[in-house]
Amino acid sequence: MQILFYVFIVIHLIVCFFLIGVVLIQQGRSADLAGAFGGQGSQTAFGPRAAANVLTRLTTWSAVLFMCTSLALVILYNRASGSHSVLENAKPAPISTPAK
Is the dihedral of CA 70, 76, 77, 79 positive or negative? Predict the structure, then answer.
């Protein structure tokens, strides 16, 4: 169980750095020189739409992987440490009478 936790940490770190890289590589809409003059050209090798689609898909899938590994780490940590909810031992608030 402990080794699985460390494997998920390594996968999570790889996904984190990949997600950061993919987001930083993306350009905003009309961020190149042709966009400043209203042109539809782009300086990418894939063309203006294909590169955006590839980077958008990579961003989406890496974000999904990030969320899945985050949830898996929380579940594994809770099972390993035996921790429980913070509200488990909470006492209910006393019921007061309304003011007259």
Answer: positive
